[in-house]
Design a protein that fits this description.
Blueprint lengths: L1 H17 L2 E2 L27 E8 L2 E9 L4 E8 L13 E2 L13 E2 H7 L12 H4 L5 E4 L10 H4 L6 E4 L1 H5 L1 H16 L2 E9 L5 E4 L2 E5 L3 E9 L5 E10 L6 E4 L1 H9 L18
Antiparallel strand pairs: 1-2, 2-3, 3-4, 4-9, 5-6, 7-8, 9-12, 10-11, 12-13, 13-14
């Protein structure tokens, strides 16, 4: 009996540990909900150093992230748009405990308090830390934007695995306006919207701290969406990209054009970002 209890406890621990940092998104059915028709993009699935995060806050999932531990920025975040009800703008910045130790809790935690809980353990080997961005000259630019969620999903976007070093002028102007335009479109036309927002890392541009390359400064940001009607039929799709500079310009693309754009920076096939390329059957 004692052996059975121990085995059950170990199994319970295993599933708690695997709930956030997963081998495949398919391992957590709830995490698959953030992908159109539960289809995970092939994009960068075999890239070395990438991990899959089912982003959990307040004991529930809110979005999914393919995270690049080598560059310490996300490849993309995948989410379902929610009309924002205000509030939920965090002053805290969360980190992912399981990127420090796989046996730690499966929910994002304030980096300051996680460090206090584990003195002497460096948290930033596989992820960016809040201090990396301090005095860097770059904004903590959300991929999955807080304004596309209601509380508590809005709070959950304030994890450093969901931000990249973004040029302040772009983040606070053209990219912000683009996100607001998408909000208006999604509210007016879509019953449900699946969104992917990603970053293309630079070859040699980094936030450097103490002579160590800490966080890659991406060359481009991009996003793509699949808008459905109340029968879950695709009715509109679109995409955009912006160079991460003070040029402060967002270029609108078709979904096919975005695929061609992303392919320039990948030695692997980009493939479909949404099921059937977000086209009605």
């Amino acid at each position: 009996m004692e052996t059975l209890v121990t085995l059950c406890s170990l199994l319970s621990l295993f599933f708690v540990v695997r709930a956030d940092l997963v081998g495949q998104f398919e391992d957590v059915p709830e995490c698959m909900e953030y992908f159109h028709s539960r289809k995970v993009p092939e994009y960068h699935t075999s890239t070395s150093g990438t991990v899959r995060l089912c982003q959990r806050f307040s004991n529930r999932y809110h979005f999914a992230t393919l995270y690049d531990t080598n560059h310490r920025i996300a490849v993309y975040s995948a989410y379902i748009f929610q009309p924002s009800n205000g509030g939920g703008r965090e002053r805290r910045w969360f980190v992912e405990p399981q990127l420090v130790n796989p046996s730690w809790q499966a929910e994002m935690k304030d980096g300051y308090w996680l460090g206090r809980d584990h003195p002497g353990i460096y948290l930033g080997e596989k992820q960016a830390l809040n201090e990396d961005y301090t005095h860097s000259g770059f904004d903590r630019g959300h991929l999955n934007p807080n304004g596309h969620h209601a509380v508590p999903g809005r709070n959950a976007t304030f994890t450093l695995t969901n931000v990249v070093p973004q040029n302040p002028k772009l983040n606070q102007n053209a990219w912000r306006i683009h996100e607001s335009q998408l909000t208006e479109l999604f509210r007016s036309k879509c019953s449900k919207v699946y969104v992917l927002v990603g970053a293309i890392p630079s070859a040699a541009n980094w936030i450097v701290k103490n002579n160590v390359k800490r966080v890659n400064i991406p060359d481009y940001l991009w996003n793509a969406f699949c808008c459905l009607d109340n029968n879950d039929k695709p009715i509109q799709r679109g995409a955009a990209a912006a160079r991460n500079t003070a040029d402060n310009w967002v270029e609108k693309f078709s979904l096919d054009e975005l695929g061609e754009f992303l392919q320039q920076f990948s030695n692997q096939p980009v493939g479909e970002l949404f099921h059937n390329n977000c086209m009605a059957v």
